[in-house]
Design brief:
alpha/beta, 11 strands, two-stranded antiparallel sheet
Length: 411
């Protein structure tokens, strides 16, 4: 079924049918935009709390941060903002120079292991692994992220889920930690109850060919966005009745969609960008349409004919500007090795290098996205207040606050 695999629910005593969930999608460095959205929401709705948190790909990093850190939403988001404002490429990855030829990388991925001794992936994600271990105090491999357990025990969190892809079976995997979890599995997906670790985050964010697969137990896992056809579904099955979805995909106008981004034969960067859009950025749009239609159908049924099904409240926040085009303005800030790689793919020949935007872990770019996210929240305040409900206290004293850098630095 679609996103609206709306599960039958009942109003049993003690049930919280209005659990609020947040969905954080992927997009590499574009996930900085989500931080801007969170920052705007935290300032306008400082007492808001997300009981259910789901994340995929780069969104998994932000999701676990929200699920594991202590304090108010404002405190968490300010710490997350400080982190993203300082991130640079060398904090996230380092190049595997011997694998900078895409054809060689693809060829080695199918060669027998005895002939393939070089590092897997165009880039080494070791720096990000080290950063996350320090961030969540998980210095031992496969050590649970204790902050999640604490927030579950205290009731500040109901459930958290990350999405990955099992390369061995081709199944989309939901790693779920929480209470009162509804298990829903299908041919191409499964639920795994787990105490989440840094390995789960790294696996969910491991872009194919770009970053190496991550081993968890006996399997090898990669980016969860690859086969995720229903990104809203995990939140629904964890009991969400309202979902705030944060997308990093820009929704083009009809005129923009029909205007070519390149002239002549499309360079590799343009082709890869289309793959990135179709796999990681566009799928949520299709899912949203299906959920809206399902909600409309349920609304037309009388209560006695709904068989326990209920409408799911949904609010989608997305960029008001093309994050790929913005990335094109900041390519000069990338490390020389990365610029060489992106230019080889023809990134300079396209107006919207979406693939490049996913690698743009540079403060000039990420700060711009954070500011854009804050602006987009401010533009939708009335609709957001209606969605969250009148019982949510709103801080009307809020005005645009300059980004604050902490004294700490990312090592």
């Amino acid at each position: 079924m679609s996103i609206a695999e709306l599960i039958p629910v009942t109003d049993e005593p003690g049930e919280a049918p209005d659990d609020l969930a947040i969905l954080l999608t992927g997009g590499g460095a574009r996930a900085a935009y989500q931080v801007g959205l969170l920052r705007g929401i935290a300032h306008h709705f400082p007492h808001l709390r997300f009981q259910i948190v789901t994340g995929v790909s780069a969104g998994a990093i932000n999701a676990v941060f929200l699920a594991a850190k202590q304090g108010t939403l404002t405190e968490k988001v300010e710490e997350l903002t400080d982190l993203w404002c300082q991130l640079e490429c060398h904090h996230v990855f380092s190049p595997n120079y011997a694998r900078f030829i895409p054809f060689r990388t693809a060829l080695r991925s199918v060669m027998p292991h005895r002939f393939n001794r070089r590092p897997h992936g165009l880039f080494n994600a070791g720096p990000l692994d080290t950063l996350l271990r320090g961030l969540f105090d998980c210095h031992i491999r496969c050590a649970p992220i204790h902050g999640i357990r604490t927030n579950l025990q205290t009731g500040r969190l109901k459930a958290v889920a990350l999405i990955g892809l099992d390369y061995s079976t081709g199944q989309s995997v939901r790693w779920v930690q929480g209470r009162d979890i509804d298990v829903f599995e299908g041919t191409n997906r499964r639920n795994d109850r787990a105490e989440l670790t840094v390995e789960h985050i790294m696996a969910s964010a491991a872009l194919p060919f770009v970053f190496p697969a991550v081993r968890i137990d006996d399997g090898w896992y990669g980016d969860g966005g690859i086969r995720l056809s229903a990104p809203l579904s995990p939140a629904v099955h964890l009991g969400a009745r309202r979902i705030l979805a944060m997308s990093t995909g820009y929704q083009r106008t009809a005129a923009e969609a029909s205007t070519p981004s390149v002239e002549g034969y499309p360079p590799a960067a343009q082709v890869i960008s289309q793959l990135v859009n179709s796999i990681f950025l566009d799928v949520i749009d299709e899912d949203v349409v299906r959920m809206e239609r399902m909600n409309e159908m349920i609304g037309q049924l009388s209560p006695e004919l709904r068989n326990g099904f209920k409408k799911i409240g949904l609010f989608v926040l997305r960029p008001s500007q093309d994050l790929g085009k913005i990335a094109g303005e900041f390519q000069r800030y990338l490390p020389r090795s990365v610029r060489l790689f992106t230019r080889t793919l023809g990134a300079d020949e396209t107006e919207s290098p979406d693939f490049v935007s996913m690698l743009m872990f540079e403060p000039n770019y990420t700060r711009t996205l954070i500011e854009l996210g804050e602006h987009d929240v401010a533009a939708k305040l009335d609709a957001l207040r209606t969605f969250f409900g009148e019982n949510v206290e709103m801080d009307r004293r809020y005005s645009s606050v300059p980004l604050r850098m902490s004294s700490a630095t990312v090592k």
